[in-house]
Amino acid sequence: MSPLSEAYGDHPLDLHHIIPLDFESARTVPDSHVWPTSQSLESDDQLSIPTVDLMDPEAVKLVGHACETLGVFQVINHGIPLDIIGEVESEARRLFSLPTGHKLKALRSPGGATGYGLARISPFFSKKMWHEGFTVMGSPVDHARELWPNDYQRFCDVMEDYQKKMKELAINLMHLILKSLDLSEEEISKVVSPGDASTALQLNSYPFCPDPSRVMGLAPHTDTSLLTILHQSTLNGLEIFKDGVGWVLVSPTNGSLVVNVGDLLHILSNAQFPSVLHRVVLKEKEQRVSLAFFYSPPTDFHVSPLALNPAQVPLYRSVSVSEYIHIKGKNLEKALSLIRI
């Protein structure tokens, strides 16, 4: 078990917060999954999500500006071959297309952090989400064997290769982001070292829904990580909340990946970078699949504001990654306020 898995294991969940709905059998939306409707804006008119070319000589400046103004941006020329992204999406679809009873063989344990199940934020909401997920930390071999006793290696190879490449991209992005804060290479290397990191890959499925306007794919939340890198296929669904504007759609563009600031980067930047509140709504009746990669320092690493000039005071106390996971696991959206000085 990885240290990150152990950190999440401190908060065992009840099974009803882990087991997804049997979406195959759902002919109507059950009351347990009906959410109040809320308006969202098409990003074209109100707010443009910036796209940063990582080969651009101005990438540091562009990434820093995006982190500061929105907490989210899309990247192109990111170095992840599109055929590899396609393979991971294909394997995710292979997993989620299995019969419900079969998927439950890989169910996340109450104190576990990997395997099949609902989003970990489920206990904080009175209504259930129209979502099923599969979490990978390192090798998924134990759960994959349960799903495909004679054909699990392909899934494992694809997931492990993708995690390796996404970790390299995350390190590259973190260097750009931290350079935008005028941190020295020495300070950057304390936060970002190639060997040590806490990472997780989340495969998400938002199944066919008979009435998409009445459900919520993923409830509003911020990510715990330093940053999240998301491939969101071709269907709309991801929305971010911008103060003074409201919910704004982040439309997928071919070949791009979405990058968003998480709580730990918000702390490191001394609140200069907003940890972006986001959600997933269902726009179509058909299934939507996405791949989210979370990157954080090792669980024993202490995060504290780094980007301080002489006139600034730290807004947050130092907190280890595992302690913050513990605080967030109990308090969700109040977590940041509980470590604010």
UniProtKB/TrEMBL annotation:
Pfam families: 2OG-FeII_Oxy, DIOX_N
Presence of keyword Cell inner membrane: no
Pathway(s) it belongs to: Plant hormone biosynthesis; gibberellin biosynthesis; Hormone biosynthesis
GO MF entry, a single one: gibberellin 3-beta-dioxygenase activity
Swiss-Prot/TrEMBL keywords: Dioxygenase, Iron, Metal-binding, Oxidoreductase
Coiled coil: none
GO terms (BP aspect): gibberellin biosynthetic process
Catalytic activity, EC: 1.14.11.15
Signal peptide stretch: none
All residue ranges annotated as the Fe2OG dioxygenase domain in the record: 196-297
Cofactor(s), names only, from the UniProt record: L-ascorbate
EC class of the enzyme, as a word: oxidoreductase
Family that this chain belongs to: Belongs to the iron/ascorbate-dependent oxidoreductase family. GA3OX subfamily.
Name recorded for this polypeptide: gibberellin 3beta-dioxygenase
Lineage: Eukaryota, Viridiplantae, Streptophyta, Embryophyta, Tracheophyta
